[in-house]
Structure formats: C-alpha cells, structure tokens
Task: inverse folding
C-alpha cells in the first residue's frame, strides 16, 4: 500500500499576476506547450530553448519613428536646399528597405488572431518564405 501512495501525482499551486501569466502563456505557446506543462518542465530544470518575446508594438513604433525621421530629413530642405541625387537615392533605398519590413510584418499578422491573443504557430512554421524574411529582418535589426 505504501508504494501506491508514493506514485500518486502531487499538486503544486502557484499564484501569478496577470502579466506573469500572460508571459508564461506566450512562452508556452511558442513551444507548443500549455502553461502548466511549460511551468512543470521549467521548474524541473529542463532546458527549454529560450525565446525572447518582443512586443510587436515596439518594433512597429521603431520603424514608424525611423520612417518619420527620414521624412523629416527629406522635407527639411524642401524648397530651400537641393538634395543631392546620392542622398535622395540613399533615402529612397532606406525607405524601400523599411517598407519591406512592414510588408513582412503584415504577412506575419495573417497568423495572429484579431484579438492578438493567439498566434497560429503551426501555420507560421509551414511558411518558409515568411520565416526566411523574418530571419533576415532580425539579422538586419541586430547589426
């Protein structure tokens, strides 16, 4: 009888704030786990590939700010100064590069539910073209 009692599952309850729970939920979903399984595996010391979750708003805000800065630089001399062809081409190149990032993000959004609570990672995992574009964007942002 004693051996059977030791084999029964035990329960540990933890309390999390709403923000903490959302973070655990996001980290679990990225790994195709539910929050309970993710917490159990992490608590037991299993190495789960770390993933940094960046809020999309931060990336969008940064791109929009860069776009506004470029527009301000371009418009600063409008009507007063002549912009060299080289400067114009550089600004145009930057504009199209950032426009490409925006399009990549829009493509990614097709896998995000309207309420932004769920990301269909299985669909994303099968989209090789989008994954390559995101890898490229990450590499560019980090350099």
Result:
């Amino acid at each position: 009888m004693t051996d059977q009692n030791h084999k029964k599952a035990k329960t540990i309850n933890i309390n999390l704030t709403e923000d903490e729970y959302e973070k655990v939920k996001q980290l679990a979903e990225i790994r195709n786990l539910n929050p309970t399984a993710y917490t159990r595996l992490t608590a037991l010391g299993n190495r789960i590939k770390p993933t940094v979750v960046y809020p999309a708003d931060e990336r969008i805000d940064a791109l929009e700010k860069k776009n506004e800065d470029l527009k301000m630089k371009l418009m600063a001399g409008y009507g007063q100064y002549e912009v060299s062809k080289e400067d114009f081409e550089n600004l145009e190149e930057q504009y199209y590069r950032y426009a490409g990032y925006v399009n990549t993000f829009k493509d990614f959004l097709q896998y995000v539910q309207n309420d932004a609570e769920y990301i269909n990672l299985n669909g994303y995992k099968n989209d090789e073209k989008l994954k390559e574009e995101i890898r490229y964007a990450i590499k560019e942002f980090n350099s």
Summary: The two ends are 62 Å apart (CA to CA). The mean pLDDT is 80. The helical segments are 2-7, 18-30, 35-43, 56-76, 85-109, 121-125, 128-142.
